[in-house]
Inverse folding.
């Protein structure tokens, strides 16, 4: 089945917003076995919406439209669709009840504008939007499917995953496509490609490998396509195991795993606790850990010791060590890890001190220099020095992921 | 002049790459006064390229095409353009000299493949690519301009800024388009729309208003178009001031401002310091502050007190208060703010305690319930209760932005 994605919104055409919705949707549709033939960003105008729909229906079997469903005047998608299908808006009681419930839960009053959100084109099947007030709308006409959903990313994502893809799969059988995403940390894309070159070249011809680099992480997506599911699954598992044997230390997880999630789950399972002393990462490691629900069962807390006086007073790093070795040093990061471990009385602890940049680098310690220490229940301390890049945001992310991966390896 | 952007590349259609090129180009063209009518991402195939060009020429005066100009087999744009214009490739000595020079500079050998990079369609004007081996190509036919450039971001950017925009400006005198983005915090899209309804309806007809909601923030983009720049700028400033008078407390900034950046800049300017005590936000407020370079000049550090014992031991919240009122209460959050302010010896402090979810809610304190307190240099404490939503990640973000905005208002 061929799919076209249409993203409606002037904000895309003036470049105010990067179209991350399109890439996320394209990835999900491809993973489900569909082909995305075009991604089209257009303006919030009736004529442009009509033209884009007409043309998309020639190229694709299904057209998924995002955006322009808000309650305000600049959002015209719903009215445009009514006109396109020559139908009228009808008040939908079920959607209205759901919008009311959502508003009550948030403590807001339902306004007249919100009541309008429950009016939908007569010919559509409403798709339940559990996160927002604009329902998805599913239309079928001339052997084509047209779906309209909000552009708010997490509303869009739930509607695509829970409603659109399952419904599309019922309409068409795209053949069997199996994917395995293998997650690596601690190596760059080109270095990884060299190490696994022989394995990659020996892959059967119906396999495809894609490198998907992100700051601090390289994802490998292995895709196989065919008609015999058990055989494909077997081959995929075998190739994954072969890769696992080749780079056991670099792989930290699969699919949608995150390092922070694996760390939290393992700690909970082992009934162990953790604390963090952060300098250059500035709270980001704690944020990653606490973004995982249930983390309160293992994460006691942390100290963000940005100023050296806080390193002394709140974590107990000695003034002498700070003066003698500097804040970005093996000695300081070890005292930070041991200090937070004993003060917070946790089984494990992480400490990071580095130069995130763009300022603060020296010849000896250029921007990106980062010391990370971890401690274990038997008070073992492991400290390592890393040299990340020049980009502040990426240095923070790389340092945090590297630190969490150090703990993961010890767990 | 109307422009269409066409991005060629299968990597866009499988969702492997986010189309940041398109948003950057759209912004540049808009700032130059052109209108981007559509952004189209298509596959690396002749037929799709032909179709997209034919359709774009109907919608736009100029079509700017990126991608598919690499030396490898999957890049077909140049050959497709030859066929489209019914012409042939001609070796271009000037481009070849430039490619050779670039390779020598990088210490690479010029290969046969790279020699091919100097072959260009006979009817094009080459645009010099100082950063790479694929020249830009400028075509004119049927009163339309078609430009093809590489998709490598920094090569694309230089070609757009130094070659394409100056040449387009020579061809047409675009009207003036001015934008102002107004940033609001603390109110939802619909509630905001109701408050500013009269102002919005009284906008002159050459003005356009767009609502751009993000978790915790609603951005308003005001656009005006015409020919008299000073007059337009005047009107835009006037309308912005009228809005500022209408919702002074809701506006925290303009354009690319972020709350954390404004807070850090104001603190630095006033030579004041800040510390944070975080429970449900789990380090995210500290992360936002420390994502701003230079924040070490005002941010001393923070305590992430996830466990109640840490609230007691490290911030000095009394056991009695915790037992009597619970961790998510006005009393506790006030003690947290005062505690971290005095222990970290800072001018300002922020404290947040809430139920981020998805678990931990009760009838009295449902998921999303959040207490925020801030303290000022004169030890004034302001505490407020908020009810955010059900989504953990969004609750964390909303609480953090709301807390930072409370401090911003006091600064």
């Amino acid at each position: 089945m061929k799919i076209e994605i249409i993203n409606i919104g002037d904000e895309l055409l003036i470049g105010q917003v990067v179209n991350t919705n399109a890439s996320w949707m394209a990835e999900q549709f491809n993973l489900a076995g569909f082909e995305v033939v075009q991604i089209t960003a257009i303006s919030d105008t009736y004529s442009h919406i009509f033209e884009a729909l007409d043309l998309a229906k020639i190229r694709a079997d299904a057209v998924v439209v995002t955006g322009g469903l808000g309650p305000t005047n600049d959002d015209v998608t719903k009215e445009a669709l009514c006109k396109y299908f020559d139908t009228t808006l009808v008040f939908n009681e079920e959607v209205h009840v759901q919008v009311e419930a959502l508003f009550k839960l948030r403590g807001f009053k339902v306004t007249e504008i919100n009541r309008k959100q429950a009016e939908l084109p007569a010919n559509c099947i409403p798709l339940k939007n559990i996160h927002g007030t604009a329902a998805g709308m599913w239309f079928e006409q001339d052997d084509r499917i047209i779906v309209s959903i909000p552009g708010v990313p997490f509303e869009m994502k739930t509607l695509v995953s829970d409603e659109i893809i399952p419904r599309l799969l019922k309409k068409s059988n795209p053949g069997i496509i199996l994917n395995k995403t293998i997650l690596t940390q601690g190596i760059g894309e080109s270095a990884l490609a060299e190490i696994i070159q022989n394995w990659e070249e020996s892959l059967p011809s119906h396999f495809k490998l894609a490198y998907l680099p992100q700051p601090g992480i390289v994802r490998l997506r292995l895709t196989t396509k065919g008609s015999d599911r058990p055989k494909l699954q077997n081959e995929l598992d075998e190739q994954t195991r072969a890769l696992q044997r080749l780079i056991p230390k670099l792989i930290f997880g699969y699919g949608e795993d995150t390092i922070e999630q694996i760390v939290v789950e393992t700690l909970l399972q082992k009934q162990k606790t953790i604390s963090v002393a952060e300098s250059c990462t500035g709270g980001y490691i704690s944020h990653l850990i606490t973004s995982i629900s249930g983390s309160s069962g293992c994460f006691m807390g942390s100290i963000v010791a940005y100023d050296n006086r806080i390193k002394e007073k709140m974590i107990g790093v000695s003034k002498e060590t700070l003066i003698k070795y500097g804040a970005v040093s093996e000695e300081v990061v070890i005292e930070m890890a041991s200090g937070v471990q004993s003060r917070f009385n946790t089984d494990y602890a992480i400490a990071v001190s580095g130069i995130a940049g763009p300022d603060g680098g020296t010849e000896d310690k250029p921007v990106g220099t980062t010391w990370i220490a971890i401690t274990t229940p038997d008070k073992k301390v492991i400290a390592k020095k890393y040299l990340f890049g020049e980009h502040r945001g990426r240095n923070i992310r790389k340092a945090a992921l590297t630190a969490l991966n150090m703990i993961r390896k010890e767990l």
